[in-house]
Amino acid sequence: MHSERQNDNTGRSCETIKRVFLYASSLFFFMFLCLIWLMIFFPQLIAREEEGEKGVEGWKATRYEIDVTLDPEKQGIYGKVKIDIESEREVYSLRFLLNENLHILGAKLSSGILEYRKAGEVVTVDVDPPIRGKKSITFEIEGKIKIKAGAERPAFAQDSILLLGTDLWYPLSGEGGARSLIKVTLPAGFKVVGPGKMIEGKQVGDRITYTWQNDIPIQFCSIVADRKWVVRSTERGSVRVQTYLYPLEEGEFAERIASSATDIINCFSSLFCPNPFSQISIVELEGISRTRTLNGIILYSPENLIRIFSSEGFDARSIGYLWWGYLIGGEGPGGWQQMQGLGSYAEHLYCEKMGLPATDFMERSRMEYLLLDSKLDRPFAEVGPESPDPLIFGKGSAIMAMLRYVAGDEPFFKAAKLLFKEKIFTRMTLDELRETLEKGTDMDLGRFFRNWIASSGIPELKMEHSVRETYQKDFRVDLKIVQESGIYDLPVEILMAGREGRKVEEVFIDDRENKFMFRYSFRPDNIILDPQHKIFRREPDLKKKSLKLLWKEEIEKAIQEALRMERVKKYDEAGKIYEEALTSVGSVREILYNYARMEHARKNYEKALELYAGAAKAEPLLKEAQKDPLLPWSHIRRGNIYDVMGRRSKALGEYRKALEHPDMMDSKKTAERYIKKPYREE
Q1: pLDDT for 555 beyond 80
Q2: The dihedral sign for the CA sequence 383, 364, 376, 378
Q3: Burial of 252 (0-12, 13-18, 19+ CB in 10 A)
């Protein structure tokens, strides 16, 4: 019996082994089939997935042909957008960005209708069979524009329209730049500004169609329209400047704006690269608070336009952003912000070339950075759109000034031209910027970028020195420079001055403590570190300078508020603001000049004469008194009033006084013109 049980158990074990073997064989065969399937089909799936991702990165838009109708009454937009694309490999899907309130009514390729889906702002177009090479896709769109959070004004206002490319009013590839042909139809009476050059304006019935052509690859196309503009075109040589200003500002500023813009464009053409813009448009628009540089368009609020072109007489910074922002862009952490810094520094280069004092914006941006809370400071390689403006504009421009100081003028400008030669119409990371600058300057800029880009803060230098007479009857100077915040590689100038001699020494510091010894035949009683303030660093008299800056900000706020009151014809309220400012801070040229300008426009001639006279005698805020353009122009405006009043001899006296001062904002040419021929109000 025991033997029978044993045989039965043995039989069961064999049966179990057979079942396990059959199960394992089946599983192995199934896995083998799966492996064969994966070997055949998985590479295709991977390739297709990769190609699908390349649908976002592996293709580019080369041209937009936009034909839309704008309906201000319904605040709507509808029409067609044709996009030319190029791809070096097969593309299975394409992605575009479009304002979430705009709808796609259809999408088609030359080969037929395409399937698409839209989720929020992302439009995905599936392409089957895949496309390769050069193709065109046409979208039909309609709807209203939803403005992004924090926008200054709606797209459609009572008499104006502002369609920013960043508001995605047309399907946008989101990668790289493209050329464009834009046709906009809207009610007659509107004038329109677009990217590039207007090639046609045609009215049919109560509708007018404008066509704009742009041959410069740009990422965003923006459109601005208004019913009230006075348009003036100025061509000097190869430079065409178009002004779109309101009647109140057109007469006073159009010629000044066109003249200064032409000078700035010619300056940047010689420093960086020839001007590629077929037209640059200077535009005034109500409802915005800050100046914007768009695609060949510079956009000002009325208050900013009056402030900038009354006090400075030019705006090289905004034109600089056309070079450092549109012709060359930045990408990645800090990349776009460094382009903003370069654009700001371009204004310094223009002022330097024209012999003009530094602008208020430059001085203020750097001072605001020096006063910035250390908790908000960060390495420039980490800054983004949310970073404080003083960090972007103050330190950003100073970084380029320091590169020029360290490298020298010739290598610096050689590198700037090389950037545009090799990188024009592209976007650069900070690493690519460094590589190109190294090539242009023929220098290793690794330490410079680590100090100024990869690290927060700026140099803090402390100098200690002693002077003693030697037995050889000369004077020995022992000097130590301590770097108290980071270790920078810096050339440093030191002024040695005494009653019997003067000499400027240049030393190089690259350590925490740096010691030097000098000998002179004269006794240097006055030893000054960095006498011309070439190094962007923290200095001892910062508090004194900051008080002046804060005082200036309060005055500017008062002027801005008065200008707003003036534009809505609340002249009494504007006058009160000016009077309160004068009572609070005393006679300041900028306040008196703007107050006089308002009374002049109101034909309150006696009051205006008094205020212009006060402006001529008063001190400016941050400028040297003799380099302030409001000084000669105060005399010119007094002369204009005397001419209108028929008091020619007094008018001539004022014009001659204007000629006694340095030429600012064409003051000499204007004064000479009115000496030859009396001023007449239009």
Answers
A1: no
A2: positive
A3: middle
Joined together, the tokens standing for residue 390 give 């003083």
Residues 651 and 643 sit within 8 Å (Cβ to Cβ): yes
Distance CA 186, CA 155 (A): 14
Distance CA 105, CA 335 (A): 37
Residue whose C-alpha is closest to residue 83's, from 120, 116, 52:
116
The residue type at 30: F
Three-state SS for 272-319 is CCCCCCCCEEEEECCCCCCCEECCCEEEECHHHHHHHHHHCCCCHHHH
Q: What angle do CA 661, 664, 666 make, to 5 degrees?
A: 110
Edge-to-edge strands of the sheet including 513-520?
461-469, 475-483, 513-520
Q: How confident is the model at residue 18 (pLDDT cuts 50, 70, 90)?
A: low
Interior angle at CA 323, CA 242 and CA 340, nearest 5: 115
pLDDT digits 0-9 by tens, 323-363 = 998 888 888 887 877 888 888 899 999 999 988 877 778 77
CA atoms of 634 and 357, how far apart (whole Å): 19
Which residue is associated with the tokens 């039965």?
Answer: 8
User: What tokens were used for 307?
Assistant: 């402030």
Condensed to tens digits (0 to 9), the pLDDT of residues 395-434 reads 999 999 999 999 999 999 999 999 999 999 888 889 999 9
Q: Side chain identity at 433, as an amino acid letter?
A: L
Predicted model pTM: 0.78
| Distance of alpha carbon 125 from alpha carbon 115, whole angstroms | 6
- Could you read off the pLDDT of 556-570 as tens digits, one per residue? 778 888 888 888 888
Q: Which of 184, 246, 174 is nearest to 212 (CA)?
A: 184
- Give the three-class secondary structure for 491: strand
Distance of CA 45 to the CA centre of its chain: 44
DSSP string, 306-365: HHHHHHTS--HHHHHHHHBTTTEEE-STTHHHHHHHHHHHHHHHHHHHHTPPPPHHHHHH
pLDDT in tens, 48-84: 444 444 444 578 899 999 999 999 999 999 999 999 9
Sign of CA dihedral 631, 635, 640, 641: positive
Pairing of strands 501-509, 513-520: unpaired
In residues, how long is the chain? 682
DSSP E strand boundaries for 32-170: 59-71, 76-97, 102-109, 112-113, 115-119, 122-144, 160-163
3 state SS of 196 = coil
Helix (H, G, I), strand (E, B) or coil at 57: helix
Q: Give residue 333's identity as a one-letter amino acid code.
A: P
Report the C-alpha gap between 441 and 412 in whole angstroms: 6
Q: Nearest 5°: phi and psi at 677?
A: -140, 125
CB 539 within 8 A of CB 287: no
Determine phi and psi for 252, rounding to 5 degrees. Answer: -85, -35
Task: Note the pLDDT tens digit of each residue in 238-294.
Answer: 889 999 999 989 988 999 999 999 999 999 999 999 998 889 999 999 999 889 998
pLDDT for position 335? 81
Which has the closest alpha carbon to 468: 530, 513, 520?
Answer: 520
Closest to 381 measured CA to CA, from 332, 434, 327, 319: 332
Closest alpha carbon to 441 in 403, 415, 402, 406? 415
Are 615 and 593 spatial neighbours (Cβ–Cβ below 8 Å)?
A: yes
For residue 277, give every residue at least 6 positions away whose Cβ sits within 8 Å of its Cβ, in sequence order, or none: 216, 265, 296, 322
Contact (Cβ atoms closer than 8 angstroms) between residue 69 and residue 102: no
Give the whole-angstrom CA distance, residue 68 versus residue 598. Answer: 41
What DSSP character marks residue 662? P
Interatomic CA distance for residues 69 and 80, integer angstroms: 9
Beta strands in 589-667 (DSSP E): none
